[in-house]
Amino acid sequence: MTFSVHGLAVSRGIAIGRAVLVASSRADVAHYFIDADKTVEEIQRVRVARDAVAEEIARVQRDLPKDAPHELSALLDVHLMLLQDEQLSDGVKHWITDRLYNAEWALTTQYEVIARQFDEMEDEYLRERKADLEQVVERILGFMKGVASPVFPAAQAASRQPRQQDLLLDDTMDVPLVLIAHDISPADMLQFKQSLFVGFATDVGGKTSHTAIVARSLDIPAVVGARSASQLIEQDDWVIIDGDSGVLIVDPSPIILAEYGFKQRQGELERQRLNRLKHTPALTIDGQKVELLANIEMPDDTAGAVAVGAVGVGLFRSEFLFMGRTGKLPDEQEQYLAYRKAVEGMQGLPVTIRTVDIGSDKPLDRLAGKAQDGQLNPALGLRAIRWSLADPPMFLTQLRAILRAAVHGQVNLLVPMLAHASEIRQTLSLLDHARAELDNKGIAYGPVQLGAMIEIPAAALTVKLFLKYFDFLSIGTNDLIQYTLAIDRADEAVSHLYDPCHPAVLRLIADTIAECKAQGKGVSVCGEMAGDVGMTRLLLGLGLRSFSMHPSQILAVKQQVLRADASKLQRWAQDVLASEEPSALLSP
Questions:
Q1: Is 516 a catalytic residue?
Q2: Active-site residue flag, 501
Q3: Average pLDDT over residues 115-134
Q4: pTM for the predicted model, two decimal places
Q5: Which of 210, 502, 516, 550 is flagged as catalytic?
């Protein structure tokens, strides 16, 4: 019987194949109390399993094929860091020695403790790193139970008996497979390069989860956050993964299969057409030049940005370098080398580095693991530039590293979450101080263009103040929407009210763009809106000429740019701004 499961579309395309199921290893964890004289033995069981998993991941990294996506190696690094996390190991020891929990129970209990901290994080990307922690714990548990990596045996065990659906698609026995799991680890994702897996779906995850990142880098259709998919879908079920609409169709009829087979072929043709645009300048019909920049998390991501024709990096999220650091944060030299690698990787194109965008509520600073009882609402607390200004030594270290990297190419420095003139003055003062420290040490550094994120309504409403101090502005639409509409993006009860097309949001964006143009200052949009092809025409009509997005979105947005007449879109954009329901006017 045909039925559908809905989730989030994170990587475009259509995948059709038979289901390979991967179950969660935490489902059957034993819970019992141990004798006091067994605590050392139980702690050693966890330590041995942890070391074995670390060696497995290190081996996978060593054996990575040269054409493996850079995101994959970076995410494996995250898993290695989480394995060595002191909060995880110390917490497990506590539950074993103080509560006399068995090793598996202690490990899952400490996982739940840390997972709650991740749930409270405001930054969506960092919040979804809980999935990485979960996978690390599951791999340790699997080793303790003597269970191998679940994907390989599951794939090998998949039945290959042809069905009526198989014959519609392929007359060989190599029927394509789709992976259905609670979640998928970066190591398991390696199989997508050299296996029959043509797509995947997971119960958990979001648009910035590691599974989504790797899926986009591999250009594999994927749906995440499908919640009950792994319970509803059975082994060998025929499944269609619609990565365009975020839908799984299970046990489809031959008619539906034929329809999606046609869509799949059309999608492949469209991808081929888009690839031809890589070296085409992004010009509108009326000759307006548009910058299409890339958002990256790690220095190695620059290869993917260059490959799709990005004209620079509009947002380097430097906080990724700070992840998994419950002790010492990355020092100046480590940061400098990372920034330099990104600058050199862009081959002379500009790189915009955003200063660290984390907060004291996140387990990333030197106080990680300690209670943050006063942090009632992390979204409104000590985060981003507020956190940086509260820890001048940390901030100066990062500023020096960025300035040093500017010797090797064009670097722009971007400051997040500014709202007050006093914050602006403090930031500029510390930047001058960082330059003076480098001068005193005789260390070379380069010039940087200085920019500010517009992601708080107060900043958008006082944009003239910002333009007195900054060379350019970057509109962070994700947070701007959240703060304008008073919507906690982490709260599923109100997430349906998160509306990029709300008139107030569009007005703040439009006014910011207009003021920058009036003063001859650069302005870009670097949030999800920049990579949404449904918003491209509107942003062009509002005067935006600089978009920064995930590299996988660049060619699709470029296609929209090439088809647009920016001058004719201006009046229509004003009509959208004046509408009570702007989204109704955005349909093609």
A1: no
A2: no
A3: 77
A4: 0.69
A5: 210
